[in-house]
Amino acid sequence: MAEGGDPRKELYDSARAFPLTGNEQVRTGRGRFRVHWSRELAGMMHELALSGSAELNWLTT
User: Fold this and answer.
1) CB atoms near residue 19 (< 10 Å)
2) Which residue, 51, 20, 48, is CA-closest to 36?
3) Cα 61 to Cα 53: distance, rounded to the nearest angstrom
4) What angle do CA 47, 52, 54 make, to 5 degrees?
């Protein structure tokens, strides 16, 4: 079992994370916000959607 007792802990290790290579400032009616994303992950998700292997829906808060 992983340190701390949670067997999933290794899955959430920062070493496994996609690097946040996208970085843009977005202007909205409520101000400007900085958005960071993984270009690698976004590209992979886009390819899945184009191939018909996955249907993507966006949900955010």
Assistant:
1) 10
2) 20
3) 26
4) 75
Report the pLDDT averaged over residues 45-60. Answer: 92
33 by DSSP, 3-state: which?
strand
Residue 13's pLDDT is 87
Positive or negative, the CA dihedral 47, 49, 51, 53 is positive
pLDDT at 48 over 60: yes
C-alpha separations of 20 from 2, 38, 48, 61 in Å: 26, 4, 20, 19
Name the helix (H) or strand (E) containing 16: none
